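does this look right to u?? adenosine-5'-triphosphate version
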Amino acid sequence: MITIDSLTRDYGAGKGIFDVSFSVDKGETFGFLGPNGAGKTTTIRHLLGFLKPVSGKCEINGLDCWADRDKIQAKLGYIPGEISFFDDMTGTEYLRFMEQYRKLGTESRKEELLTFFQLDPQAKLKKMSKGMKQKIALVVAMMHDPAILIFDEPTSGLDPLMQNKFIDFINTEKKRGKTILLSSHMFEEVERTCDRIGIIRNGRLVTVNPVQELRNRHIRSYTVTLETEELATAFAKDFYGTQNGRNVTVTAKQSLEDIFIHYYRGEQID
Ligand SMILES: Nc1ncnc2c1ncn2[C@@H]1O[C@H](COP(=O)(O)OP(=O)(O)OP(=O)(O)O)[C@@H](O)[C@H]1O
Ligand SMILES: [Mg+2]
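got this back:
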């Protein structure tokens, strides 16, 4: 559904994105992780047709993201990393404006979404808190029930309760067959929602892995040799290990967060 092929935008001084390629299948939720300045937003802006590829290309549902950007933008649900609104409107006015712009009638999911995210949109946008603005962006991105959702750090500014609600929401949308690209800094958020995760560092995609594979791969076992069998018995008991004479074998599970931190720092992991 989403294909990115050798996408490159060189901002100079080593900044930008370089030869980024990955794809997101229909019905799949793909997590796009990486440290600040890694290139997530730059990649996503190409998908929306806000940036023209210098080299490489990207397509959504067979349409070229640059040449067919009007068609694509009308179909997608998109949450930008940095939100800017027409500040002088109230939330209510802005949402109505977006409904009219998209020619939505009774099929609009606006009311349902406002209730779900517990938002009263009557205040002026410029007086809204960061979290309230983020909720407005969520409602706008999803009111037309798009088949493809592209979210750039959608939960920044949301409190933990709302972040949880958002995760539930994503998982419900996923069950409804949506294709979702989710950029995030939050390991838990991607772990609880995504099928595959790509990690970008310094503008380069360093790894793409199914979440399940990452989970399975990182169960490690260690064998420790103690001075006496008595010590080994005590050690095995304390650490739920398996004893064999003075040797005790224990298994330890590396958390996904540990794995991500390794990738973030650019360390090799085996
Ligand atoms: N218009 C631009 N001109 C020059 N450099 C830019 C421009 N836009 C982005 N960059 C640089 O490209 C790199 C990637 O930025 P990008 O916004 O894509 O990162 P990000 O992964 O979204 O980071 P964050 O997690 O902080 O949102 C950064 O070093 C940034 O400074
Ligand atoms: Mg960003």
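DSSP finds ten helices and 13 strands in the chain. idk if thats expected tbh
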